[in-house]
TrEMBL record:
<dbReference type="GO" id="GO:0005730">
    <property type="term" value="C:nucleolus"/>
</dbReference>
<feature type="domain" description="XPG-I">
    <location>
        <begin position="144"/>
        <end position="217"/>
    </location>
</feature>
<dbReference type="InterPro" id="IPR008918">
    <property type="entry name" value="HhH2"/>
</dbReference>
<dbReference type="GO" id="GO:0006284">
    <property type="term" value="P:base-excision repair"/>
</dbReference>
<dbReference type="InterPro" id="IPR029060">
    <property type="entry name" value="PIN-like_dom_sf"/>
</dbReference>
<dbReference type="InterPro" id="IPR019974">
    <property type="entry name" value="XPG_CS"/>
</dbReference>
<keyword id="KW-0460">Magnesium</keyword>
<feature type="region of interest" description="Disordered">
    <location>
        <begin position="106"/>
        <end position="125"/>
    </location>
</feature>
<comment type="function">
    <text>Structure-specific nuclease with 5'-flap endonuclease and 5'-3' exonuclease activities involved in DNA replication and repair. During DNA replication, cleaves the 5'-overhanging flap structure that is generated by displacement synthesis when DNA polymerase encounters the 5'-end of a downstream Okazaki fragment. It enters the flap from the 5'-end and then tracks to cleave the flap base, leaving a nick for ligation. Also involved in the long patch base excision repair (LP-BER) pathway, by cleaving within the apurinic/apyrimidinic (AP) site-terminated flap.</text>
</comment>
<dbReference type="Pfam" id="PF00752">
    <property type="entry name" value="XPG_N"/>
</dbReference>
<dbReference type="GO" id="GO:0005739">
    <property type="term" value="C:mitochondrion"/>
</dbReference>
<keyword id="KW-0597">Phosphoprotein</keyword>
<keyword id="KW-0539">Nucleus</keyword>
<keyword id="KW-0269">Exonuclease</keyword>
<dbReference type="InterPro" id="IPR006085">
    <property type="entry name" value="XPG_DNA_repair_N"/>
</dbReference>
<dbReference type="GO" id="GO:0043137">
    <property type="term" value="P:DNA replication, removal of RNA primer"/>
</dbReference>
<comment type="similarity">
    <text>Belongs to the XPG/RAD2 endonuclease family. FEN1 subfamily.</text>
</comment>
Length: 376
């Protein structure tokens, strides 16, 4: 998942592209959130003290539902408007990577069984987290929970849809832990947005334009770099790390030149992956926000969570969703520096400077006069 080593490259070569914020400073922002990535995150992170996933009385997993319910309340509580986007059918190009993930999960299952007999609790927990898979049932259960708030389903990859919404100005940013969201032209990427408040992890903002400027690359070259680093569609080339990948792209201008230089004969795969990054994903219309926000007793029963706790959370959510939201100051005006045209010349600039000083002297004289009158 994501682009291997990209964050490190940006920190080293384009530090201005990454900034950190407290979640409360993002009030008034609309953010398209990669729901499928969030489900995976909650299944790994939301667990009992013994490392096992949360379950209801019927033995069904509820970690993803608990995560979505309470993290969404936190997001809305801070004045952010979330638009959750779910994965559709994965592209055929991803089949090879998905097969390898399946193999790794099977290996982790075997390791987990051995750890139960001879290993420690920490080892069992580690193998358990490696076997996590987001199923169709997980998606449907979360869609049911979020249905009252409105949601989108992407034709293919959720991060591509999030990027398209941000690119089209429908939302301010895309929210995902997946760095390859940037390859779909997302102008702003928020990471750690759905992290637990207990982690005290600030929201990381990545600005695509600043990243390109810092790397001194075009968008096409940036996509080529991400492919070379290793992404969801292709494994990285052996012996080519982040620094050497950056050097190769700069020296040879793009992926085609690098492939020719390395004498690799897999150009068709790279071109196919490049097309996935460059194409504009389609969009399906949102079902919209339900006007009647009814409390769902079925959800309460399915999660075995405290009914009073869930109802309090639902009431809190309704309160913030129905309240009139305060607008952001930067939405009303744009501060522009005073500029001079070439025709003005140095004389006019000097006059402007004199006017400023003159105005300052007049103010000082007025204040002195007022002071003397006060003494009398």
């Amino acid at each position: 998942m994501g682009i291997k080593g990209l964050t490190g490259l940006l920190l080293e070569n384009s530090p201005n592209a990454i900034s950190e914020h407290e979640i409360k400073t993002l009030f008034g922002r609309k953010v398209a959130i990669d729901a499928s990535m969030s489900i995976y995150q909650f299944l790994i992170a939301v667990r009992q003290k013994d490392g096992e996933m949360l379950q209801n009385d019927a033995g069904e997993t509820t970690s993803h539902l608990m995560g979505f319910f309470y993290r969404t309340i936190r997001i809305v509580e801070n004045g952010i408007k979330p638009a959750y986007v779910f994965d559709g059918k994965p592209p055929e190009l991803k089949a090879g990577v998905l097969a390898k993930r399946f193999e790794r999960r099977e290996e982790a299952k075997e390791g987990g069984e051995e750890a139960k007999e001879t290993g420690t609790t920490e080892e069992m927990d580690r193998f358990s987290r490696r076997t996590v898979k987001v199923t169709r049932e997980h998606n449907e259960e979360c869609r049911k929970l979020l249905g009252l708030m409105g949601d989108l389903q992407a034709p293919s990859e959720a991060e591509a849809q999030c990027a398209e919404l941000a690119r089209g100005g429908k939302v301010y940013a895309a929210g995902s832990e997946d760095m390859d969201t940037l390859t779909f032209h997302a102008p702003i990427l928020y990471r750690h947005l759905t992290f637990s408040e207990a982690k005290k992890q600030p929201i990381s903002e990545i600005n695509l334009q600043k990243a390109l400027e810092g790397l001194d690359m075009t968008m096409s070259q940036f996509i080529d770099l991400c492919i070379l680093l290793g992404c969801d569609y292709l494994e990285p080339i052996k012996g080519v790390g982040p620094k050497s990948a950056l050097k190769l792209i700069r020296e040879h201008g793009g992926l085609a030149g690098v492939v020719e230089h390395l004498r690799e004969k897999q150009a068709s795969k790279e071109e196919a992956a490049e097309d996935v990054g460059l194409e504009n994903p389609g969009r399906r219309r949102s079902r919209g926000v339900s006007r009647e926000r009814k409390k769902d007793s079925t959800y309460i029963n399915s999660t075995s969570d405290s009914e009073e706790r869930v109802r309090k959370g639902a009431d809190k959510l309704s309160k913030f969703l129905n309240a009139k939201q305060q607008g952001r100051l930067d939405g009303f005006f744009t501060v522009k520096p005073k500029t001079f045209s070439k025709k003005d010349g140095p004389a006019k600039k000097a006059d402007a400077k004199k006017e400023t000083k003159s105005g300052k002297r007049k103010t000082e004289t007025k204040e002195v006069g007022s002071s003397k009158k006060a003494k009398k």
